[in-house]
Each structure stands twice: as structure tokens, then as C-alpha cells.
Amino acid sequence: MENKKIIDYIILEMESKELLVFEVLNKIKEGYLPLGGISLAVDSGKLTVFKCFAQAMVKYADK
User: Fold this and answer.
1) Which of 4, 14, 45, 63 is deepest in the core (most CB within 10 A)?
2) For residue 53, which of 12, 8, 4, 10 has the smallest C-alpha distance?
3) pLDDT tens per residue, the chain (63 residues)?
């Protein structure tokens, strides 16, 4: 497997999977690639349920 140098690392966080998909696709156009799978955090309070979808993304150095 080829070793690539990571030059940037970001984590996208959105309140819906649709927004996350939109942002991931935008970042791919900027040269980022997803690293691993998505994460989902759910916090159910007494009156509301909060969801946070997250995706780590990296940008690699050119060869």
C-alpha cells in the first residue's frame, strides 16, 4: 500500500445526513477525501432529540 502524506484534516458536523452528504461532496471537489466512516451522536432530552452526523476528511499532498 502506498504511503501518502496528509496535509490537512477536517471534521464536518451536520444536523442531518442530507446536509452532511452535500458538504462531503463539496469538500471532495476541493480535493478532500473521506477518512473512515461517518459517526452519529444522538442526545435525546426530555423535549427534543438532537442528532449530529460527522465525517472526517483529509487532503493528501500531491506526489
Assistant:
1) 14
2) 12
3) 478 999 999 999 999 999 999 999 999 999 999 999 999 998 887 777 788 999 999 999 986
Amino acid at 56: A
Element (H or E) spanning 46, and its range?
A: none
Q: Do residues 15 and 53 lie in contact, with contact meaning Cβ atoms separated by under 8 Å?
A: yes
User: Hey, what long-range contacts does 1-7 have (CB within 8 A, 24 or more apart)?
Assistant: 4/60, 4/61, 5/60, 5/61, 6/58, 6/59, 6/60, 6/61, 7/59, 7/60, 7/61
* 3-class secondary structure, 24: helix
Do 11 and 54 contact (CB within 8 A), yes or no?
A: yes
